[in-house]
Amino acid sequence: xxxxxxxxxxxxxxxxxxxxxxxxxxxxxxxxxxxxxxxxxxxxxxxxxxxxxxxxxxxxxxxxxxxxxxxxxxxxxxxxxxxx
Length: 84
Fold this sequence. Notes:
By secondary structure, the protein is α+β, with helices and mostly antiparallel strands. The chain has helices at 2-13, 76-83; strands spanning 22-30, 35-42. A two-stranded antiparallel sheet has the order 1-2. The radius of gyration is 13 Å and the shape is globular.
């Protein structure tokens, strides 16, 4: 599974994440999308995060978990809360 995460992160935001830097966090049922979503934390990466699929994403920004955008994906607040 970590290889899939590494491939997707590279494809979507252009960074390389060492496998040892990934730690499983939480599994979320996202019925509105028809998927189970697995989330990982990463302790390090190589490269500068950027939008690599502009047709699928309107932007990338760092935000405080108490100051999220109103149009955030419904399950993401629960994921961020699980981080602590």
